[in-house]
Amino acid sequence: DTAVITGYIQSSKKGYSSQNGYYVTKNGLKNIKRLCFGKKENEWIYDVFIISDGNAWMGGSQGNIFYSSNYGKTWKKLNSPLLKEYRTTSIFMSNLNIGIVGGTSNNLYVTNDNWKNYTKIETPFDQNLFTSKEQISYMEIIKIRIWKDYYVVKQYNKVFYSKIDKIEWKEFNVNLVDFEIDRDSNNLFAITKENHIIQFEDIDSYK
User: Fold this and answer.
1) What is the pLDDT of residues 167-195, one digit of tens each?
2) 164/146 Cα distance (integer angstroms)
3) CA-to-CA distance for 56 and 205, rounded, in angstroms?
4) What is the CA angle 106-109-127, rounded to 5?
5) Comparing C-alpha atoms, which of 121, 86, 101 is closest to residue 47?
6) Starting at the edge strand that comes first in sequence, how are the strands of the sheet with 141-147 ordered?
7) Cα first-last separation, the chain
8) Which DSSP category does 10 fall into?
9) Taking the model in full, what pTM does it have?
10) How many Cβ atoms sit within 10 Å of the Cβ of residue 65?
11) Is 137 helix (H, G, I), strand (E, B) or coil?
């Protein structure tokens, strides 16, 4: 029933506000409240990730990572690996400490302590799995997930996977356009280019 709605939202209904806002519902959109997450950031929020215990993360247009421990009621800024000129395009956390974040300009980082420390890892572009006709600044990480002992990433409209302990990106054996994890079953669901929905139980087999 709890959801966070973000974008480029001012926290005040009365004209221009220097404070950034977001919407929160706790009863399936029956009631929606507008709250403030930061002052004078002027930040668009690109992605939000929430886990069932109320911990939540979001990132936006100035490379920041914001963290909430109370289902999005209040937020604090974490130690983001992304510089201000980059955008935080996707974030995923397996638990309170372990996560991965992607951004524009081919940036991909992982953490084991909720962004107190972080490590940059290679992307599919770094490993020459495709050639971009655009500038490197447009080589954003579109989407990332941690599934079992794999990272799954979408970059340049292609979906790749790699073992966590050894970064060697490979493209799936079926053409995918999107994917998501069912956290209850720990299965990976995906949409193919033919608009079929498939389910992965392991990295090489689907139905």
Assistant:
1) 999 999 999 999 999 988 889 999 999 99
2) 9
3) 32
4) 50
5) 101
6) 141-147, 150-155, 158-163, 170-171
7) 30
8) B
9) 0.86
10) 25
11) helix
